[in-house]
Amino acid sequence: MISNSWTNNEVYRKKRNIVIENVNILSESDKIRFSGFETVLFNKQLTNIIHCPIIAKGSYTIPDSIFSIGIEAFSQCKGLTSIKIPKNLKVIGCLAFENCYSLTSVTLPASVEEIGFRCFSNCKNLKSIYIQGKSPIRLKHDSEVFYKVDKTNCILYVPIDTRIHFMRALQWKEFNNIVEIEYL
After folding, report:
1. Collapsing DSSP states into helix, strand and coil, what is residue 131?
2. Portion of the chain with pLDDT greater than 90, in percent
3. How many Å apart are CA 145 and CA 92, to the nearest integer?
4. Mean pLDDT computed over 64-93
5. In this structure, which long-range contacts are made by residues 80-88, counting pairs with CB atoms below 8 Å and at least 24 apart in sequence?
6. Taking the CB of the first residue and of the last residue of the chain, which one, N or C, has fewer CB atoms within 10 A?
7. Model-level pTM?
8. Where are the chain's structural domains?
9. Distances (CA, A) of 107 to 6, 145, 158
10. Residue 43, CB half-sphere, CA atoms under 13 Å: how many?
11. Phi/psi at 105 (nearest 5 deg)?
12. What is the mean pLDDT of the chain?
């Protein structure tokens, strides 16, 4: 067991429980180094989000150093209302925001290249998705990234002169409201 310090850089062995602020995490490889900030668990290099405790509430801005959001990283964070993703993030893992019932808004920068399977599944209150890239983001498995998202009422905001591309792209075309806006 480690202290409540989020900067502990100890090396942990396989199948050893790690407890950080009452969040129990099971390490998955022989030598993993962790780092944490504001109750969110990152890899040592602060390039990947590994886990956010389900008790997270409100909005969260992901640090600029993050390049990927891990599988199920924010899954079950039912109190999370909005997420701001940094400009250099490339990959959002499978089920990353699954069952984030309170999530109402997400901004996806132009750098995002891939969104994993059922990433936003059961985000039933998602009302707005802001896409900053000029072409539709590749969706892993081409189905169910937005499983049980209300695509009738959720507004997809895309850059000027790109609406037609989203209206033709798999899954993106399922959104009834695709609105062009100018990003500064």
Report:
1. strand
2. 62
3. 11
4. 95
5. 80/52, 80/56, 81/57, 81/105, 82/58, 82/106, 83/59, 83/107, 84/59, 84/60, 85/109, 85/112, 86/62, 87/111, 88/64
6. C
7. 0.79
8. 17-181
9. 27, 15, 10
10. 14
11. -150, 140
12. 81
Residue 8, both tokens: 């502990």
CATH fold group of domain 17-181 = 3.80.10
CB 119 within 8 A of CB 143: no
Residue 98: phi and psi, rounded to 5, are -55, 135
φ, ψ dihedrals at 167, nearest 5°: -70, -15
Q: Give the containing element (helix H, strand E) for 167.
A: helix 163-168
Nearest to 1 by CA among 31, 27, 36: 27
The single-letter code of the amino acid at 175 is F
Q: What is the largest CA-CA distance in the chain?
A: 54
**pLDDT given at position 142:** 61
Name residues whose C-beta falls within 8 Å of residue 81's C-beta, 6 or more positions apart in sequence.
57, 58, 59, 102, 103, 104, 105
Q: Is the pLDDT of residue 21 over 50?
A: no
More confident residue, 29 or 17: 29
